[in-house]
Amino acid sequence: MELLRIATAGSVDDGKSTLIGRLLYDSKAIYDDVLDSTEQHSRRQSSEYFNLALLTDGLKVEREQGITIDVAYRYFSTPKRKFILADTPGHVQYTRNMVTGASTADVALIIVDARHGVVEQSRRHAVIGALLGIKHVVVCINKMDLVDFKEEFFRPIQDDLHDLLTELEIKSHHFIPISALEGDNVVEKSDRMPWYIDGPLLPHLEDLELPDNTVETPFRFPVQYVIRPLSNEYHDYRGYAGTIASGRVEVGQEIAVMPSGATTSITAIETPEGDANSATEGEAVTIRISDNLDISRGAMFSGTTERPATENSFDATVCWMSEHTSLKSGVMLRIKHTTHTARAMVSDLECRVDINSLSDFGFCDELKLNEIGQVTLRTSEPLIFDKYADVRGTGSFILIDESTNETIGAGMIGRPPYLGAGLA
Amino acid sequence: MNSLEKSNSELLTSSQLRALEAESIHIIREVVAEFERPGLLFSGGKDSIVMLHLAVKALRPAKLPFPIIHIDTGHNFPETIEYRDRTAANLEIDLVIGSVPDALASGRVQASTLPGASRNRLQTPVLLDTIRDGKFDAVFGGARRDEERARAKERVYSFRDEFGQWDPKNQRPELWNLYNGFTNPGQHIRVFPLSNWTELDIWQYILAEGIELPSIYFAHEREVFERDGMLMAHSDFLKPEHGEKVFTERVRFRTVGDMTITAGQKSDAETLEQVITEIAVARVSERGASRADDRTAEAAMEDRKREGYF
Fold it and tell me: In 3D, which of A141, A135, A144, A183 has the Cα closest to residue A158?
């Protein structure tokens, strides 16, 4: 994969914005005029040094108050890769934003202040990354310049987080001592930390290998839109448009059409580049089949074995995102899952999760803003799904308020094995 | 670069572009499936041209089921208008025009008489009227998040209230590829399928797909004059003032908008490859280089976006 999506969060003043500013600046993603206007602003704030962090603040109120209030997306590229970075604020009240940024990420970048060690917010970021199914974590231990680049500040943080990430079943993790302010180990290897033998951050992100899991994962294709041109030229044409949520498919293959379970075979796969013999996860294609079946948006194609579940009741982990309402049993909501929208209701609010320890608080009455809980949901129609841990695209959903139309919750079907067990 | 390195780098570019293309197509199909009456904002600039190209790909072999919308300040490059009309005719799609000159004539908007005023801000009420009159519930826009810092905060589905306003502090969380398009009557969603593209991605995609662009994107001789360090095209809409000298220069335009606020730059790039080479080494952003409208204030874009601008 040559496009790498990164989510980053940090605590107040741990230098996250400076690090991102450094990555953008050193990879020349910042143009001179943007730099000039940032420099002028730095001077207005009487900063002693050119404030790299200001490169990433988007809104007036953020620049005035020196805070980040929302997810911002940054773009930079090197000859090896293009990076999309979701930059989120890390305060406890911003769990919502962290979950949002992590939902599309391949890699989580966690920043720890070398002077303060692992704080609650570093742990929370790791836990949210794990809940959202991120497989790779890179931990930057920042501000090494303020601890004289000494290894004894780096190792305890590494040991602490290594244990946590292992418990969270994140097997791929990596630790880098850096100084974002002075540029040590960000793009260029620092010569002030000879005890650190691995490479700096940017080359690590460039070379990070993401496993090609299209071989082992089952084929899933939520039907998004039925294309029927109704023209003389394409009189009988009927194509099922959508994005492959997982796995791989090829022309001639037998498939099942869910929820009916009817089987048919694939006669054509049309990609944006023309007809193809096969297609894999992430591709937006149009599939044509040999039989005339009643199929509309919300249906799902799968292999004839390893079919998805079709149920109207399931367990899920939910992050609550509404400032105005709380999640309670019996309240009616809209659910959007794959290309299907239905109504949903919590039949059982099992527990609220302590996001720092991952132990559960036991039964509770409601989930409030930024809280994460384990629930049982019932839906007005069966959903066609997999567990989130197995297939991200068919295991995720959002909850929408029926009166205000706001997105008020995000959910992942299933129950992570480490949830409720409590962390050391 | 040896030939092996070159083909390798082309392969990388192509894989990035295909991922971005798939994401945009997914967004466009989602809108067509869920909304009653979408429309696509088309300025004749490169971003809206790429967006239209993606929409055609997303829905083929069916014809586009929605119109393109042009908010016309009346100060156009003739090359852009010719391109717009020809494109609509070729694709057999409807063209909806929201006209700033008409709105001025009817008194709906008033032209500012201040020096340096353009029709840029007048586009917002005309755009909102066009959306309301056409009963559009989803409007595709070609904005990209890398363009400007307020845009970096914008969602793919950007909710607009009855007044067309954007509230950056109160946006719907956007997770996975699950977009929330629910609105009440009078409200609408601005949809930005190119959110994750950069300027360079756009140009490389235009090259890879062989997309035709209006000729003003390539180097040509033109009468210009210098204003605030920028080369402005001399036209009936914009004339030199106090001693600004008109001269002929070889220029191309990096963005294409209203003639009175879009600046050209000196260039000899006559082909897409040459333009891409110039952009890859450029040290000034496209808005900084070519948009007089963004120079007015530090938060110029954010303020206009709150009011309902593109």
Answer: A141
